[in-house]
Amino acid sequence: MKKLNIIPTIKDGIGLALVNYLSLVLTVVLYVLTIWIPYLNVGTTIALASLPAEMAKGTVVKPTFIFDSKYRKNMGEFFILVALQVGAILIGFLFGIIPGIVLGVAWTFAVVLFVDKNMSAIEALRASNDMTYGNKWRIFGALMLVALCIGFLNGIIQALFGIGDISWLKTIGAIIVLIIEVFAEPAILGVQASIYKQLSTGEIVSDLSNANAQAQVAAVEAETKAEK
């Protein structure tokens, strides 16, 4: 099993987030506006959970994709998957927190695989566990590092704009924090998409960059030989 590289993965994930930023914001807006509609809201929730797979394709996500009827097709199986996943993770937390974290990371892509590969609940859980095997702590580290950076940045902004307890200054700080939060979720989804893309294809980000560099060197050498 090839090992993920945390920093290149985060960079790749942020790139995917930037490409899809506006689409993701519109997708969330559409989801919020229609969350009150029974039955439709199940499909949109399943679609939203499968966003990493859509982003991993490298194309811009269409916000209206969440209304596709295919996401409502296996509604019952989705509920079974969520019940098994959440129930087992909660039990894991009862055994000292760490087992719950490990299961949470192991099944990160269970819903994604359920939708993207049309798997059953058990198949998706097993496939996600196999996919993340050997990379669980790297996945946890990448996602945690992004979350910590966002939290640290928010903390600094709040501290700086909270000096002197000036209302208008605090308002500006709150607006900046809101802007950061609006970007935060796409960034996390982007990192998840990058991880999913790498683990499902076996093409690790650094390997791709190294391969490109080697190809460029080979091309230069070939041109040099041709000139001689």
General description of the model:
With 228 residues, this protein is an all-alpha fold. It has one domain (6-206). The protein contains eleven helices and no strands. Helix 7 packs across helix 8. The radius of gyration is 21 Å and the shape is globular.
Q: Calculate Rg over CA atoms.
A: 21 Å
Given the helix and strand composition, which structural class is it? mainly alpha
How many domains, as an integer?
1
The average pLDDT is: 86
Q: Tell me the fraction of residues in β-strands, as a range.
A: under 5%
Q: Spans of 5+ residues with little confidence (pLDDT < 50)? A: 209-220
Largest sheet: none
Q: What's the total number of strands? A: 0
Tally of helical runs: 11
State the helicity in percent bands: over 70%
Shape call: globular
Distance between the termini: 43 Å
Give the H and E element order.
HHHHHHHHHHH
Descriptive labels:
228 residues
Question: TL;DR of this structure?
Answer:
This protein is mainly α and 228 residues long. It has helices at residues 6-34, 40-49, 51-56, 70-73, 75-94, 98-106, 110-116, 121-132, 136-161, 167-201, 205-227. The chain has one domain.
Architecture blueprint of SSEs:
Elements: H1 6-34, H2 40-49, H3 51-56, H4 70-73, H5 75-94, H6 98-106, H7 110-116, H8 121-132, H9 136-161, H10 167-201, H11 205-227
